Amino acid sequence: MVNEASNLIPGCPNCCARCSLGLCARKQVVNLALGYVDEMLCLSCIAGESDTTVSALLDRIIPYIMTRECFSKQWLQHSDPAVCANPQGCHDLRNREPGHSASDSLNSSCRKETL
To answer: What pLDDT shows up at residue 76?
Structure first.
């Protein structure tokens, strides 16, 4: 269940444990699907840890997310940037749906808006 006040998954970290960039609910889902629970990472840090690109990471994990109801429900619920706590950093995820390959020009950051 997503916290309606912040559009994040309750109990999950909201910043990358390595670089402190903000995480949105879809990035939290990616982390949970990969087994990251106590510490979560932004897509760039996950990709770096796996020695891959963000595009390749998403190509691999999105099909898995869509086969698991617990993940796909959250993923689909956050397809609209209007419900995202960090819409500027989520363009890469918003345009990604099963069966679509990522382009090399995707924005892989998940930065919070500067206050």
So the answer is: 86
Answer whether 29's CB lies under 8 Å from 7's CB. no
**Residue that is written with structure tokens 């419900």 in the block:** 83
Distance between first and last Cα of the chain:
27
Long-range pairs of 65-70 with CB within 8 A, sequence gap ≥ 24: 65/29, 65/30, 65/33, 66/98, 68/33
Q: Judge whether 26 and 90 are in contact, CB under 8 Å.
A: yes
Distance of alpha carbon 85 from alpha carbon 66, whole angstroms: 22
How far out from the chain centre does Cα 110 lie? 8
pLDDT (tens, 9 = 90+) of the chain, 115 residues, equals 444 445 788 889 988 999 888 888 889 999 999 999 989 998 889 999 999 988 899 899 999 999 999 999 988 887 766 656 556 555 455 555 544 443 332 333 334 433 2
**What are the residue ranges spanned by the domains of the chain?**
1-101+106-110
106 contacts 84 by C-beta, under 8 angstroms: no
